[in-house]
Amino acid sequence: MTSTPKDLLEAIVEIRKQLCVLHQQLVTNSLVVWTAGNVSQRVPDAELFVIKASGVRYETMTDDDMVVCDLDGNPVDQFNTVDRKPSSDTAAHAYVYRHMADVGGVVHTHSPYATAFAAARKPIPCVLTMTGDEFGGEIPIGPLALIGDDAIGRGIVDTLSNSKSPAVLMANHGPFTIGEDATAAVKAAVMVEEVAKTTLFADVLGPLQPLEPAVIDRLHDRYQHVYGQ
Amino acid sequence: MTSTPKDLLEAIVEIRKQLCVLHQQLVTNSLVVWTAGNVSQRVPDAELFVIKASGVRYETMTDDDMVVCDLDGNPVDQFNTVDRKPSSDTAAHAYVYRHMADVGGVVHTHSPYATAFAAARKPIPCVLTMTGDEFGGEIPIGPLALIGDDAIGRGIVDTLSNSKSPAVLMANHGPFTIGEDATAAVKAAVMVEEVAKTTLFADVLGPLQPLEPAVIDRLHDRYQHVYGQ
Amino acid sequence: MTSTPKDLLEAIVEIRKQLCVLHQQLVTNSLVVWTAGNVSQRVPDAELFVIKASGVRYETMTDDDMVVCDLDGNPVDQFNTVDRKPSSDTAAHAYVYRHMADVGGVVHTHSPYATAFAAARKPIPCVLTMTGDEFGGEIPIGPLALIGDDAIGRGIVDTLSNSKSPAVLMANHGPFTIGEDATAAVKAAVMVEEVAKTTLFADVLGPLQPLEPAVIDRLHDRYQHVYGQ
Amino acid sequence: MTSTPKDLLEAIVEIRKQLCVLHQQLVTNSLVVWTAGNVSQRVPDAELFVIKASGVRYETMTDDDMVVCDLDGNPVDQFNTVDRKPSSDTAAHAYVYRHMADVGGVVHTHSPYATAFAAARKPIPCVLTMTGDEFGGEIPIGPLALIGDDAIGRGIVDTLSNSKSPAVLMANHGPFTIGEDATAAVKAAVMVEEVAKTTLFADVLGPLQPLEPAVIDRLHDRYQHVYGQ
């Protein structure tokens, strides 16, 4: 690469700042402890995304801990003034960005209620209007995939390509969520934990009363097109 | 409408301020995440009420995000300096104000323990003196009603008209609560979650030991007439 | 009464201040919501105790909301510059102070895990060394007693007189705890919720493994005599 | 002892400060209430460690409440300007430091989810990739050991010597964790509670789907060698 456009540099500065705020919201919403969890955001009009560095504590995190990577998940030195290794989940995020052009943000947590469904390898059934609104049906289970190659990324993409849901529960691992940007993906991470929690409590009271597919479609359609400003 | 009385304008300013505070208490009491949940308050001596705008985040909410509506749920431009679409639950709130003259405040949340009972379509049984005090008996389940017409509002009014309870658990959806003003309705939203949580934990230990109707009546009567300053 | 000793007035000022701090700790430890719960403290060398006013919110509570009462539970005007009705549980606190000379503080909450055991009318079994340390055995269930006369106070005193435990779970109601002063009673209220929570979780995993009486006695004896500064 | 090297004094000052911060993280992560729980750190190149004083409240804790002890658990007056009795769990920490040369930090809590497994005397099965990463397999149960002699320390060392896990759940008591320093031991205390919580929720949904030993080994090996900066 030759000279870097000023617009691109400014976009990266802004994304780093947003990602710091969004990582704190993982903490506020009780989705992560210690260094677990990561948020990434695609850089618009560039073959790049930005992701948390590996093993960084939320309490001391700064913009410098947000690492710019190419779409193969390799850090791009030109943009990273501090030498940081990106999140150990970077390959999974990169795979999603390479294969899902509409995705602008990815989040991974081990939030306990959603991860409980992942550990039991049970999808979260659609028993709440909130689940219909946000996920358009049950929240699916992905395969058991080990870190180290493209298995996790492929499991995410294969599962979400066949679902309206922006969240997948990777078996024995935890939720990955996607969105048009990092904020939307964080929202999905917050909502998957909230519906997991509520559904688990309902399961204790049982038996569950799933919504009809026609009801779910009506909820999802309205919410995606009418809700918000 | 011709000129607006100064008193009415001042009342609306004051209600907007109170509603901002009350929405924050939904957060403090863990009743809502992200943009879920809404509080409204009737404007005394006017055919108006004020409610949260649709899809607004709690962290950035200001008085301007509180939308003045008529009793059909339409925003009244004269009072809304900023253009905001009211909550997608506005029609349900409006229906309650039109049909229950004594109600001055309405709250809706998806608080997880109360919503778990709603998902299992089980009323919260009256096994706690606190439930007797606040709700005068079991907390009833309302119908499965979809957003988009008067079904939710009608379900709330029909259910609460036959109950001492200021809270109804709309099936597969979540609690709606009412009160003489918005503060009382928020109190009922806090209490329904607290008794739902405690009752669900008791159900785990089981079996539940419901209170006798005569005991419940005595608790409810005393609490409504003696408690407080 | 004639003139009031300056020492007594100073003691009351100090107790009011401490009670405000202790009530906030009920909130911090998730033992209460809205206006539920109350802490009282005996005034040393006087036939008096101080207790929260009825229906006061924790967020706006001040020293003036702490009401000085005689041991029959009647407010003593001489010490209360502001006119406040004491907690609706005042009669129960007063009964305890009249009948248990060593008790200097009483706390009542509806903390959800402990109240769940109360609703199921099951004592909290002694399956944790922490329960042995703090409570010297299982935490007992008291009778179902209604507010309005001495029934609650009598149920507390009768149950605790036959137990090493400073906490009793009043049936379908919630925990009352005692201590040599209000701080000790608040500590017992915090600990009863913590052991209730842990024991309920253990019950989910089940079956429970109760400690032997001889083990419990050794734990309790050491903790009461060796722990702390 | 004759004169004390300035380096040693500075090291102790620094450790006291770190231990205060780490004890607050037990509170932030909901691992402790009131005075329960304790963190210690070995002093490098000295036959000493530093531990919390007995019965100290987290809210008022200062560096002076961190007591310097020899490896038999006796306070060393030379380093303690304020007279404080060390934690009642000091003997267990001392035993670990005497018998495990690589351990630089020890933490003990009664965190409720981990302690629930301890009360049911069930190891936490390895059903989460996070458990494989951090603990290398199931988290073992230690013996029922009473305070007062070396029984607890011996139970910790015997159990952990036969496990990759840095955490042991002492039967009916609670978790003890170890690490190369106090920060690593606190991390293990945070993670054991997080996996206990998630696994208990998964157990409610059941049945659990344990990971294969070969999968666990691969996760653990990668995490110990690749994760972080």
Automatic annotation (TrEMBL), chains A, B, C, D:
Catalysed reaction, written as an equation: L-ribulose 5-phosphate = D-xylulose 5-phosphate
Gene3D superfamilies, A to Z: Class II aldolase/adducin N-terminal domain
InterPro entries according to UniProt: Aldolase_class_II_sugar_metab, Aldolase_II/adducin_N, Aldolase_II/adducin_N_sf
Cofactor: Zn(2+)
GO cellular component labels: cytosol
Keyword Zinc annotated: yes
Pfam families on file: Aldolase_II (PF00596)
Enzyme class: isomerase
Keyword line: Isomerase, Metal-binding, Zinc
EC assignment: 5.1.3.4
GO biological process annotation, one example: pentose catabolic process
Annotated ranges, domain Class II aldolase/adducin N-terminal: 17-200
Alphabetized GO MF terms: aldehyde-lyase activity; L-ribulose-phosphate 4-epimerase activity; metal ion binding
SUPFAM superfamilies xrefs: AraD/HMP-PK domain-like
NCBIfam families linked: PRK06557.1
PANTHER family: FUCULOSE PHOSPHATE ALDOLASE, L-RIBULOSE-5-PHOSPHATE 4-EPIMERASE SGBE
Family note: Belongs to the aldolase class II family. AraD/FucA subfamily.
This protein's name: L-ribulose-5-phosphate 4-epimerase
Gene (UniProt): ulaF
